Predict the 3D structure of the following.
Amino acid sequence: MKMLIVDDHPMVRKGLVSTLSAEENVEEIKESSGVEESVRILSSYDPDIAILDLRLGKEDGLDIVTQAREMGTKTKFLILTSSSKKEDFIRAQKVGVDGFILKEAFAEDIIYAIHVVARGKKFYDPEITQSARAEDDELRELTSRERDVLLELGKGLNNIQIANRLYISENTVKKHIGSIFSKLGINHRVEAALYVNNSISLNQ
C-alpha cells in the first residue's frame, strides 16, 4: 500500500511515518505540506491512501480532495484533524472523503481507520457520529412541517416569506417557530439559522 501524508507540521508527518512504517502492508510513504505539492504527487505517484489535515497553514486540505477527484484519481482520502466542528465534517463529506478521524485518537485507532478505508468502506470518528446521533434525537421531536420551517429559517427568510413558500399562514409559521425553539432549546432566529447550517443531519 502506497501512502501520502499531508500536514503542514513536520513533527506530525514524521510521527505518522514512524507509526505507519511498522505496518507490514505499507510499501512506501511520501510527505507533503501544501495543496500544490500534494496534487503534483497525487498525479504522478497515485497513492492508495492519502492522509490529510484540514488546515494546511492558510490553505484548505479539502482542496486537494476536490482537485484529485477532478483528475480522476482512485486514491482514498482520510482526514486527520484536530477539528471536531460539525461544519468541517459536513464539508469533508460533501467533497467525498473516505474517512474522518481526530488527531487525539490513539495510534491503533488511526491504523484501524486506514485499514477500514483501504477495504473500500467509510470510517468516521465515533466522537463525530455520536454528535450526529444526539442531533438526530433532537430533530425527531420535530414534525415534518416544523422541519420545513426550520430549513427556511436557515435560509434567513422572514415569517411572511416562509408562509408564502410553504403555503401556510403567517400565524401558523409563528406557532411552528415557537414549537421549534422550545424543542431544540434555542431562543433566537440566528441560533436557528446556525443550527441548520451546522447540522449534519439536515445537510446530508
Summary: The first helix runs from residue 10 to 21. The beta strands are 2-6, 28-32, 49-52, 55-56, 59-60, 76-81, 99-102, 123-124. The mean pLDDT is 90.
